[in-house]
Design goal:
Strand order of the largest sheet: 2-1-3-4-5-6
Number of helices: 33
Strand content: under 5%
Largest sheet: 6 strands, mixed
Bound molecules: zinc ion
Helix content: 55-70%
Shape: elongated
Radius of gyration: 31 Å
């Protein structure tokens, strides 16, 4: 790796370009065999034309070896001949022949031809030899924009986004103007997985301004890349403005915006946009795998099983069911909608599997609380020769946590380093969660203390969550102090701490935390629950007044709570963060979004139907108790997926065994 050093004058620009480390493996000294010695150098022009035509036609027919033999017989190959030879090397996937053509090209004095240098760089990057591509770039002094773009393309193909940005800065310094292709590569570099800093977002915005200034916004490929860039940084409104400005949208641009919504917590919008795409396109747009994966992801987020099934039907009818990422998304969708058997059957029917499909299955069992099954799938996966990825470990450790499998989880955590990487922050967060839930908070605290890297908000957040379950005020204060520093704008941490104080009846502290929250101007994320009834998804918040059936829902919930009280139910008023009269607390509890959703489900769905709900926060103890009762009293299965896991309420018990 090399770093950009500032400011030598443009005349010394070559000194800017460090020679690539592997370049020494290449030597382009003219080779004797390539000098067509058998022919006179001043050859017959008519014969030259004939020979060039012959070589070109052999290239077009894919006869590379014969073309190269003819090249040996021709002293004056044309630029077009070289272009076709290089293309033929790509098609034949022959790096060694490509290198031979390159040597001959230097020999013939074409080394300063920027057109051929561009083609050479493209050939090397298509043949996955970035070192050669880089060397061609370094050795040519006549760099026009095409040569630069070819280098950006080569670097992009191997994911070297950082180098694209460094070279782009250099190109600007030298004074070469960018074109729309340059902007595409630079935008892609801004979203390369290696970094996601705010400076990259600013760079992306700067490119956006250039695009507008040069009126490039009519180029759909470029604007779609802009949508992707904003999506990566979670800037939904910027992405949407760019998307709406595209006059002739294609399937890639629609998919980019759908993916933006699906990945940034806007599943409703993702599904809505998908239906707009199908309607507005009048069948012109066939969804691609990105569209399908995003739409399935949105269905998963909302536990919208019926919509998910419709999408699955579309996938089968359009023969997309052999595409690996689509299958993984289907496994996840069914798993997260509570249809574990369906997840398993999709997995079983797959002809090819990759690590992602295994991960999807492991986490599906995990959120259902089937920890041992998740571990056995993990073992099977290794036995069949698949190398677990960091995500695999996150999935299997999460599964251990939901099932309280402390020893198994510890062993799996210890085994991470045997797979070529050290535990990442996510893995520590899982381990802390596992130990914390199992009330081994001291051990969790020691693990955090001994971490070699900065624990970060996920790890401290896991500890704080566990402190809430076990009412450990002292450790909670320590964790929250760190969290307030790391995430000063996250109201959730304040709410959690206030919750812990409320649990310990420390009302003065509750007030203090609430005051801090107000002083900082932070808003608590409102609780929201979604329910799908007759293929339509409805959202409920705890202040829901928009639903036309709201009065009916409230009346039903009140009736149910009276029935429950007669059978000894005591509302879990400790989950209410205010020092209020119990009656008022009960009223607040009855307004929780998940209860409203359950009430809506009871009123609007048929007797034997399962009620499926998703919630954006953790399910509270009171809603948990009420759901258990309702599942028994109304004889209905209720499935609630909260941020942690899935709860299946049936006949008065929950699949989590009250461990969540
Ligand atoms: Zn609740
Ligand atoms: Zn439960």
């Amino acid at each position: 790796m090399w770093a950009f050093q500032v400011s030598p004058p443009p005349s010394q620009q070559l000194a800017f370009f460090p020679k690539h480390h592997a370049a020494s493996s290449l030597s382009f000294t003219p080779a004797a065999t390539f000098r067509p010695s058998s022919l006179s150098v001043t050859s017959n022009p008519e014969l030259t034309i004939q020979n060039n035509n012959l070589i070109q036609s052999l290239c077009e027919k894919g006869k590379l070896k014969q073309a190269l033999e003819s090249l040996n017989q021709e002293p004056n190959p044309s630029q077009r001949t070289y272009e076709l030879l290089l293309l033929c090397c790509i098609r034949q996937n022959s790096l060694s022949d490509g290198i031979s053509v390159h040597r001959r090209l230097i020999n013939d004095g074409f080394c300063e031809d920027s057109f051929l240098a561009t083609k050479l760089i493209n050939m090397y990057s298509d043949l996955q030899s970035i070192d050669h591509a880089r060397q061609v770039f370094d050795e040519i002094s006549n760099r026009t924009i095409f040569v630069w773009n070819a280098l950006f393309r080569a670097l992009s193909l191997v994911g070297k986004g950082e180098e694209v940005l460094i070279m782009y800065r250099m190109m600007n310094f030298i004074g070469i103007s960018s074109d729309r292709f340059t902007y595409t590569y630079v935008l892609k570099a801004c979203v390369s997985p290696e970094s996601s800093s705010i400076s990259l977002l600013n760079k992306g915005k700067e490119i956006h301004a250039h695009i507008l200034r040069h009126a490039y916004e009519t180029h759909v490929h470029l604007t779609t890349t802009l949508v992707d860039m904003y999506a990566k940084f979670g800037r939904i409104s910027n992405a949407s403005i760019v998307f709406n400005s595209i006059s002739t949208k294609n399937v890639v641009s629609w998919s980019a915006m759908i993916a933006c919504y699906a990945r940034n917590g806007k599943p409703f919008e993702a599904l809505e946009l998908f239906s707009n795409m199908m309607l507005e396109g009048h069948g012109l747009f066939s969804p691609n795998s990105v569209t399908m994966v995003s739409v399935l992801q949105a269905c998963s987020s909302l536990a919208a099983l019926e919509q998910g099934k419709l999408i699955h039907g579309y996938i089968i009818r359009n023969h997309l069911d052999s595409i690996l990422p689509i299958n993984a998304a289907l496994i996840t969708m069914y798993g997260r909608c509570g249809e574990l058997e369906k997840s398993q059957s999709i997995f079983d029917r797959m002809n090819n599997r990759d690590v992602i499909s295994w991960n999807s299955l492991i986490s599906s069992y995990g959120i259902h609380g089937f920890g041992l099954k998740a571990i056995s799938i993990f073992e099977e996966m290794k036995r069949l020769g698949f190398s677990p990825s960091p995500v695999t470990f996150t999935s299997v450790l999460g599964a251990c946590s939901h099932a309280g499998l402390v020893n198994e989880g510890r062993m799996i955590f210890e085994s991470i380093k045997d797979h070529g990487f050290y535990p990442l922050v996510d893995h520590y967060a899982c381990l802390v969660d596992l130990l914390g839930r199992a009330n081994q908070l001291d051990e969790a605290a020691v693990i955090i203390q001994d971490m070699r890297t900065e624990p970060g908000s996920k790890v401290w957040g896991s500890l704080l969550g566990a402190c809430r379950i076990h009412c450990n005020v002292e450790l909670a204060e320590r964790a929250s102090r760190r969290l307030f520093e790391l995430e000063p704008k996250n109201a959730g941490n304040y709410v959690l701490l206030a919750d812990i104080y409320a649990g310990a009846k420390m009302w003065e502290e509750v007030k203090r935390v609430r005051r801090d929250l107000e002083l900082l101007g932070l808003q608590k994320v409102p609780g929201c629950s979604w329910i799908e009834v007759r293929k339509k998804v409805y959202a409920f918040t705890s202040v829901e007044e928009l639903n036309p059936q709201i009065e009916q829902i409230h009346a039903l919930l009140l009736r149910l709570s009276m029935e429950m009280k007669e059978r000894g139910y005591v509302p879990e008023t400790k989950v209410v963060l205010y020092d209020l009269e119990d009656e008022e607390k009960e009223r607040i509890l009855l307004g929780h979004s998940e209860k409203l959703a359950v009430g809506f489900g009871l009123i609007n769905s048929g007797r034997g139907e399962k009620i499926r709900i998703t919630k954006n926060l953790r399910l509270c103890e009171d809603c948990h108790a009420v759901n258990k009762f309702v599942s028994w009293f109304a004889g209905r299965e209720i499935l609630v997926r909260d941020v942690n896991r899935l709860h299946c309420f049936k006949d008065g018990v929950c699949s989590c065994n009250d461990y969540w």
